Every structure is written in structure tokens, then in C-alpha cells.
Amino acid sequence: MASVADEGVAGKTAEQVEQDRRWRERIVAEVANALLAGWDQFAPEGGTDLEEIEQRVQRLLRLGGGVIVEHVAEGAVGNLPRPVCAGCGKQMEVACRRAREPEGLVGRYRLQRTVYVCRHCDRTAVPADEFWGLGPGTLSPALSRVVAAAAAEIPSFAQAAATTGETLGVKLDPSTVALTSEAAGAVAEQDRQAAVAALKEELQPAAGAAPPALPPPAEPPTFLLSVDATKANADKQWRDVKVGVVATLGPQSRPQADGRMTLVAGPHRYVAGIEPTADTLPTARSGVVPRLPAQRATDRGRRSVHLELHREVGGLGDQGPRGC
Ligand SMILES: [Zn+2]
């Protein structure tokens, strides 16, 4: 039944709400048929204990899950515009409809997609795959993430396949787990490299320009200096990394709740290095590290430390420090 809440939330007319209701009813009827058709295969009543009953029901429910995903996913790409060619910019034409059957988190399903081709340079494109985030593998994006996470935790691909398969009620091949894990690693590496490149551009001074210097401190100069240390793996050995923050203090002062007056910290500068502390800290004043707005000190500081580490340890090329 169409409810006021539905109309209010989604901004739908009563007619659209009614259409949605009928669409959902059709899907639920198909789910019921799928469960009935598959009941004999998984026979929940054949389970000898609660664990086995649950496992059988889970496998049975995947049949229904697949039906729902199929309808909802295809509905979502029903009105995608005809794409333009990424090579020459011309409008692409429909080449064919082709199905894929990914294994997903809640079931296996069959997705019909429109394949487009460029008549000028023969490129093809499948906008639906792009919209869904469906990669080239046989697993859905959500299942891929679960499988990749398991593979990262569990040393053997066969064991990761067995554990994940048992948890989700899906049969997974160790080679599929290996491929998915590798693909996820490649994507993560691409994302990380893009993030590092963006940070470099944002934080590094323009080519040829002198690094920004701290403004001259008030007389007599007063600095806030805070130092900490951590370990970092650089060039295959663990090194002590000194991290510090330096800021000018004053001359402005501010009253505290207890009545004391404290000097106000000026612009912050962050430094990190693997050389001895006595050599590390002066770089904080020498303008090697880009100056950052004080109001974003925490966030920017962490990032600038990463960037500076990258510069200090050298030899890592574009890879930067681990975990950056
Ligand atoms: Zn083209």
C-alpha cells in the first residue's frame, strides 16, 4: 500500500509508488519460485543439527538473493545514456547485449549488459559494468572485497577460499581468490600512488621557488618545540624516526580558564628525519618542510610528515614510505 512516508521521502507520486509496489511484488514472487525450485537441492530439513540446517538455508537463500540483485542492478542501469568514445570522443553505437554471471555476496546472478562500440576506432565500452563497479573478474565488487580481505589475513589461498566459502555459503576456487587478491592489491597500489602524487603537488613549493620560511619571530624569539620518535622500515632496516613540530610563540597571549596567560602559537612546521636528532630539528627552522596552516595542524601534519619521510629516506623512488 502506498504510504505518505514513501511519497514524502522519495518525492514520488502515488502512481510511481504503486508501480514500485508492483515491481517489488513481481520480484518477491520470483524469489519464492526460486526458493521452491531449489528447496530439494539444499533440503534444509535434511540438516542433522542447527549448524547444518543454517548452512543449508544459507545456500538456499542465495538463490533468492541472486534474483533480487539481478532485478535491482538491471533496473539501476536502465536509463544510462549512450556513451561517447574515450578514444575519439564520437558517440558509440550499440554492438550487442551480453550477459555476465558474477558470484556475489548474497548469491549468483545473471546481468544483461549493453556493449557499445565506436565505429571509428573500434573501442568498446560497457557503461553498466562501470556504473556497477563490476571488475573483470568473476566475483562481485562486495564479494571481491571480502575475499581480498580474507586472503590478506590468511596465509594460504586454499584456506582463505575454504573459510570465506563456508562463512558465506559459496563455493570459491583458490585460484579465483588468488587473482582477486592480486587485483585488489594492484588497485590499492594505484590509489596509493595517486594519493602520494596529489599530496606532493599540494605540499611541495613550486619548481624553482624557495621553500616558504617561517615569519620572523617576535623579539626575543620564542619557539614551541615538541618532539617524538617512532620506528620506520627504510631500505629494509628499521630506523629511528624523529618527528617534531615547531611553532613560533607569541607575542600575542591569551587568558586561560584558570586565569594564567599563555602565548599563542603561530604557524606550525613539522619535521621528520632519520639523521641524529641534533641534525633533524634544525631542518624544522630551515624551511625544508612546507609551512602549513595551523588550523589544519593535525591532519596536514601527519601528511607532511609522510611526505618529508619520503624525501629523507631516499632510495624509495615514487613508492614512498610504507603505509603512506
Ligand atoms: Zn572512437
3D structure, described in words:
- Among the domains are: 59 residues, no CATH class; 97 residues, no CATH class.
- Helices cover 47% and strands 19% of the residues.
- The protein contains nine helices and six strands.
- The strands form two sheets. The protein has a three-stranded antiparallel beta sheet with strand order 1-2-3.
- A hairpin with a 6-residue loop joins β2 and β3.
- α2 runs antiparallel to α3, α5 crosses α6 and α5 packs across α7.
- The amount of beta strand, in percent, is 15-25%
> What are the distinct ligands in this entry?
zinc ion
Q: Radius of gyration, rounded?
A: 29 Å
Number of distinct helices: 9
Q: What structural keywords apply?
A:
binds zinc ion; 6 strands; 324 residues; 9 helices; disordered C terminus; 3-stranded antiparallel beta sheet
